[in-house]
Write a structure and sequence with these properties.
single chain, 317 residues, alpha+beta, 4-stranded antiparallel beta sheet, 7 helices
Length: 317
């Protein structure tokens, strides 16, 4: 147990969970050896290399698709939306600003920054209070969504300072700042309330924006944005489908084809049929090879987990 406690301290929480799950699966395979021996019925190693290469290529495509898809989302956001700025009213040369829906490239999330503006000619020595974001609700009129306390010091004249970053939320309609105490060089403010204007969002752009986010393969969710990859698959699928479904019609009342035209038509139709057969056999062969290779890769993976489980069992016993 000491080694697990050491790993828990060193590794990130999610990585530690993955390591723990892998260790448990390894022990399960080791102690239930019939599962391991049953898998030996599969064809052995040559195809497992293809399966390994297939998984490497698949993961590489997923990573590339994630990068391109997120870049397209960011470009769409910057083109059609951009951050929203909401100011409070000004009381005794103090104002507050909320900049919402700022895109964080590192974490791929939207955030909101809160700023304090000192518009006076004096230094703001200290200020403390809390910011509250409200939603206009049909039943209770106002619903409190977020409440943040703050305490800032040493803000120079005619400057602004970011004092908080929070996750962006599309539900709020206005904010309120309650200042308990604000001390200038020659002035002091107590128990003042700053309010922003109420607004309602036009969220139609969100429908198109989130259309560019697709992380699912069937019912399973992945950590990658696969929108670009799926669009390419749809494009080439439609291209192959349209090529294989080509049909040519003649209206003999309006057009009388010559022997050469009919000969070219027959050659073209034979070419389409030949392409259909080639595509069918190519897809079938690739499907068979990939199925066998994935099974073999899975078998090799089980072997490695069996060895790991044996080592863990010997270590624990």
């Amino acid at each position: 147990m000491l080694i697990f406690n050491s790993l828990k301290e060193v590794l990130h929480k999610k990585i530690f969970k993955i390591v723990l799950i892998v260790c448990l699966i390894s022990l399960f395979i080791y102690f239930f050896e019939p599962i391991y021996t049953t898998l030996k019925l599969f064809i052995d190693y040559p195809f497992s290399i293809i399966g390994l290469l297939f998984f490497i290529v698949l993961i590489s495509i997923a990573i590339y698709s994630d990068r391109i898809s997120n870049r397209n989302m960011r470009e769409y956001y910057e083109k059609y939306k951009g951050p929203d700025k909401h100011y409070s009213d000004i009381l005794q040369n103090i104002q507050f600003l909320a900049i919402d829906e700022i895109y964080n490239k590192t974490n791929n999330v939207f955030e909101m920054d809160l700023y304090l503006l000192n518009k006076s000619d004096e230094e703001l020595i200290s200020i403390d209070g809390k910011a509250i974001f409200y939603k206009i609700d049909r039943d209770v009129h106002y619903e409190k969504l977020v409440e943040i306390s703050f305490n800032e010091t040493d803000l120079n004249p005619k400057t602004k300072k970011k004092f908080q970053t929070i996750p962006s939320t599309s539900k709020w309609n206005f904010f309120e700042i309650q200042v308990y105490n604000a001390t200038f060089e020659n002035n002091k403010i107590e128990n003042k309330i700053f309010k922003s204007k109420r607004f309602f969002r036009n969220s139609a752009w969100i429908l198109s924006y989130f259309r560019l986010l697709d992380k699912k393969i069937g019912p399973f969710s992945t950590p990658f944005n696969l929108y670009w990859f799926k669009e390419k698959v749809r494009l080439y699928t439609r291209h192959i489908h349209s090529h294989c479904k080509q049909e040519i019609f003649f209206n003999f009342d309006l057009f009388d084809p010559s022997e050469e035209d009919l000969k070219e038509l027959k050659l073209h139709m034979r070419s389409i049929k030949r392409n259909k057969i080639l595509i069918f056999f190519a897809i079938s062969a690739i499907t068979i090879v990939l199925t066998i290779s994935i099974c073999q890769f899975f078998y090799v993976l089980v072997q490695l987990l069996y060895i790991l489980g044996k080592w863990i069992a010997n270590f624990l016993i």
